[in-house]
Amino acid sequence: MARADKATAVAELKNEFEGSAGAVLTEYRGLTVAQLKDLRKSLGENAKFAVAKNTLTKIAANEAGVTGLDDLLVGPTAVAFVKGDVVEAAKGLRDFAKANPLLVIKGGVLEGKTLDATEITKLADLESREVLLAKLAGALKAKQSAAAAMFAALPTQMAQLAEALRAKREEAGE
């Protein structure tokens, strides 16, 4: 690879690191070109799967301010740059790795924090952002409904108590 090509590749990788919410490093040794194409499809539009040389990836990551990846950049490495929902991309990688054991998730980085393979698997086990937001909204609505019911019950109970007191006084002849 000529020096100009390397500089271009480093610049592209640096842009990917800077423009991504996260990056997941994988080992792809033994996967066919067709399998890599299927993997790219399974990641969706929010992630880009790129095969790059380790030294160029190290340089680009350091230039982008991403640290902690040097130990992961050993052997054939491909990087999934995630621009959208990180959980969705992690699920895609996890599911593809289950179906194709030759794909090994090494680790990654999410918003500047280095993650190992188990943390990425835990991330993949999370529900999507939309589902979590819907659950939060449902919980907040339930609390508000309970509070509204309690506040509505107070005047009703007070009226019932006043009526019972009036009826008791009537019986007593007052």
Which geometry do the CA atoms define?
Answer: rod-shaped
Radius of gyration: 28 Å
Please tell me the overall pLDDT.
82
The domain tally reads: 2
CATH homology group of the largest domain: Ribosomal protein L10, N-terminal RNA-binding domain
Family: Belongs to the universal ribosomal protein uL10 family.
Pfam families: Ribosomal_L10
Function: Forms part of the ribosomal stalk, playing a central role in the interaction of the ribosome with GTP-bound translation factors.
Organism: Nonomuraea wenchangensis
Topology:
Blueprint: H1 3-19, E1 22-27, H2 33-43, E2 47-51, H3 54-63, E3 77-82, H4 86-99, E4 104-110, E5 113-116, H5 117-125, H6 129-172
Antiparallel strand pairs: 1-3, 1-4, 2-3, 4-5
Describe the structure in your own words.
One of its GO terms (biological process) is translation. Forms part of the ribosomal stalk, playing a central role in the interaction of the ribosome with GTP-bound translation factors. This is Large ribosomal subunit protein uL10. The protein has 174 residues and is of the alpha+beta class. It has 2 domains: 3-126, 2-Layer Sandwich (Alpha-Beta Plaits), CATH 3.30.70; 129-174. It contains 6 helices and 5 strands, in the order H-E-H-E-H-E-H-E-E-H-H. Strands 2-3-1-4-5 form a 5-stranded antiparallel sheet. Strand 4 and strand 5 (113-116) form a beta hairpin. Helix 1 packs across helix 3 and helix 4 (86-99) crosses helix 5. The chain is rod-shaped.
